[in-house]
Specification:
heterodimer, A: 507 residues, alpha/beta, Aldehyde Dehydrogenase, Chain A, domain 1, Aldehyde Dehydrogenase, Chain A, domain 2, 23 strands, globular, B: 130 residues, Hypothetical Protein Aq_1857, Chain: A, 5-stranded mixed beta sheet, 3-stranded mixed beta sheet, 4 helices
Amino acid sequence: METLEKTQKTVERPTFKAQYDHFIGGEWVKPAKGEYFDNISPVDGKAFTKAARGTKEDVDKAIDAAHKAFATWSKTSAAARANVLLKIADVIEENLEMLARVETIDNGKALRECRAADLPLCVDHFRYFAGAIRADESSISEHDEHTVSINLQEPLGVVGQIIPWNFPLLMATWKIAPALAAGCCTVVKPAEQTPTSLMVLMELIQDVVPAGVLNVVTGFGPEAGKPLAQSDRIAKVAFTGETTTGRLIMQYASENLIPVTMELGGKSPNIFMKSVMDKDDEFLDKCIEGAVMFALNQGEVCTCPSRILVHEDIADEFMKRVVERTKAIKMGHPLAEDTMMGAQASNDQFEKILSYLDIGKQEGAEVLCGGAKADLNSGLENGYYIQPTIFKGHNKMRVFQEEIFGPVTSVCTFKTVEEAIEIANDTMYGLGAGLWSRDAHELYQVPRAVKAGRVWVNNYHAYPAHAPFGGYKKSGFGRENHKMMLDHYRQTKNMLISYDKNKLGFF
Amino acid sequence: MERVSISDKAIEVIDELRDRFGELMFHQSGGCCDGSSPMCFEKGDFKVGGGDVWMDQVYGCDFFMSKDQFEYWKHTHLTLDVTPGRGSSFSLEIPMGVRFIIRSRLFTMEEMESLKPVMTGEEYLEADAK
């Protein structure tokens, strides 16, 4: 992997306040215990601001504010709620470049991804749910000439939303937009690795959202996340993260008998059928890019296509081109416009990925490219950079079974469609999958046979607001995106009405 | 032969956490974000059951993993270590600015033959109650 020899030209670094407080009840609120913690940028390993170290007192205050706001927000018209979402979208759009740079400093990802994906998707998701709530209708049925049943959707109430660090603003948007559209009020807890970008956004939209509707408390999981998940005054918890914490949150939710949404990761197979190499054309070029998609967002995506399944007849030639394309990935300063892949989000992630590179080699997987950290200079020596890595091996190896959450994929071959499906499904997880083929029958039959909530067919890593996203198996349950999300934040009020003046005659 | 051992640095962190929280336990996570890392909780805070495997006791802390995950891990020896970093999740060490991490190596054939038996989380609970 190329080492920087001279300083890359970077865009101007955004400025930050010395510290950020919680945002509760429409105001900036100092943490009850008065403590803050450093936010370290993965770009250079240096602290660039501080975040409030929230505790149960702060979480309780946020829940109080949310309950107070719920009394009016839940009765605010759909048109008015939609307008709030539209204004949020406009503010993000107007400040897109600044927010993209902030996200890069907070998370370490390359600026070009924030500009092209994270931020435009945030704008679109808010607009989508603004539209969805306007077009949404309840249902009514006439059971007989005297009896009418009305199903009305009512907001759940105050919800707790725990956000991961891989797409800090976008994952917050995925949770906040449908909750607000549905009429819920929310207490959001961003990840402690990336607590700042959402606060920068809150500064921009603080006057747009009515006080208490959207509250954000920063802090550490055991100190702020846990009291939020344990609270008996929330109506739902939405969580994106890993299996153990997911189980723990469900355990707390079971004590309060409230619903949860779980998005817990995956080990997504990306399947390349023999026909992809029937021609050397633009479609094959798209397929090769599809295989290299494992490096998007430094592999820190729960749907990272971290297993490549390729037909054995084309494996050598196909992988040769995939490796070539992977080696062409330009690493460098995340704020440089030509950088294609940035830094991993934190030091412990960096160390964990290196430990997987180690066990992969020990288990006998062949390193086709990468396989080590990337030594970048010019001020990036202490950042968390890993070379995009491709292992070749078999599906029982740990690197084929565990979510590494780094720019690492593992390739194995198959002989038949049946074998491809068997390998694809031989995993604990079922979040994403990819299927690439020129065969019309395979394009429908293989995705149906793969046990995953999202199968990309002849594309990968698209996340439109209009398509439901979520997992099968140990990848969780519940969905995000799509108008069906509204019902994940609402419950059904059934009014069963009799228009018959006559008694039943029982008593 | 033990399945899980521990580094000196991890011992220091456990000592400090034990002073504050009392007895501890570990559950190895899988999946997204901070997954594939060991989570440290107060003993009993995380409810284990028939879907878990008790793998070992490491420095006085019971160490668990989900049963299906264990199928892919059972041929590897684990060392509980610690690294500076800002993990998320509810693991107790996170506010200290460090994160527990697992380092793995393959068992040798001889080691595989002398491994201590594991038990399910349910069997563990029965044994622990006695």
